[in-house]
Amino acid sequence: MLQGKAANGFALLILTLGLLTSRASAQFDVAALRIVRTANLGKTQIGMVAVDLDSRYELLRHNPDTPMIPASNLKLLTTAAALHTLGKDFAFETKLIHLGGDANAAELLVLGDGDPAFGDDYVLRKWGVKVKDVEQFLSLWVDAVRKAGIKRISKLLVDDRIFDREFVHESWPRDQLNRWYCAQVSGLNFHTNCIDVYPEPTLPGDSPRIRVMPDSPFLSTSNLAKTGAADTFWISRKLGTNQIAFRGSVKHQRTKPVHVTVHDPAIYFCRVLAHRLNKAGVRVDQIAHVGPTQDISQGKTLHVIRTPLSIALTRCNKRSQNLYAEALFKRMGRKLTGTPGSFRTGAAAVRLFLQKHIGTAAASVRSADGSGMSRDNRVTARIMVQVLEAMHRDKQAGKLFRQSMAVAGQDGTVAKRMKQVKARVYAKTGYINGVSCLSGYIVLPKKGAASANTSSAPSALADADDGRVIAFSFLFNNIRPSLSAVMSVQDQLVAMIVKGYGK
Q1: pLDDT digits (tens, 9 = 90+) for 340-390
Q2: Three-class SS of residue 199?
Q3: Can you give the residue range of the structural domain that contains 288?
């Protein structure tokens, strides 16, 4: 074991290098110290572990058992637990059901299953078969009603009781609840529970034109923005309502939308659907939630949307979409208890998974939510690596889990990182204010195989092509330098391991 005294509060870096030659050990020592000393990390708190999963040798560790805020690295625990709790063949199902009544007074029910991908434009573009955007998606629902011969809907009910109606976690920042990453979590989610807003400048000093997707003319909006010399456009939403105000200045026409969350996504979806139905000549008289204890009789299913778990995992881990993690979290709670999924029952499901796979060490983990948005979450670098190891050894779910992660230099949140690393790196990033984390797998090429990180897609990878696999977790809290400086250190540590251990 080698020890090195690093500058600026990094303290002790311990390298256990049982498999390496003395020459390789020296290379690790010098490289690690150089990275740390030149980074000027100040009082940043760091927890790190890297383990060769073939030999189980610990290559690198520093504060391995210190509970840290994981930010979105928590999604790795959530998705691993979801695979085991829900099963790799699980699929969300959202249904439109004709409960009764004739063509002129039908009663319809939208039955939610907590699907986070329901009406998500990104998923429709990437995996949609019949539709490629939310308007085409809505047309399928309208067509299903019209094909049933229904001309008037007396009641359009929505059943979102698979989850509770604690839409946001109590520890999420209240001043950010209008942002996409704090979208509400509902038993019926739609379009990632956000609207997309495209402002367009007009004459200087005049209000900009505003286009909203999905088209939602029923929303209460105030256009307080102005066409001006700068682009400072932003959107506020009064908490507990869908009263939305457009603010700031618009200079250029937007090609990418500004997002704002909606309140009570289930009712919002029904209002969007009712608007489309009315335009198609199908009148909707009333929209309402199913009551908490209301018994819903069986009816005829008119339309079903299914989302395989694999899509939800990929959207969650590659793109770090918080809503997906929270929906998986609550859906596990529902599966575990049979009661409406909640933050509390989701945490219980994750805890049960961890107890089964890592034992008593699970007691040190705190999962306040599923996405890592809460600052109340805690996990150690060692436990992160233990979960990664458990999934690596899982013949049923391990490959699906790994393939859901972003690939360095190729896609997701690490598309622009670690491009020159001569190995395949599957990673999950994590960032909230003062926190930056990176965890995942380093897959070294087999001896004599091509070493460049050039695989076209994770789905094309075969396990037989893997050389040694190293699981790592780098958790950085209380960041004092810039985020880019910390990310650079993380990337250099990955490169150091590949260079020193891949020979």
Answers
A1: 999 999 999 999 999 999 999 999 999 999 999 999 999 999 999 999 999
A2: strand
A3: 91-308
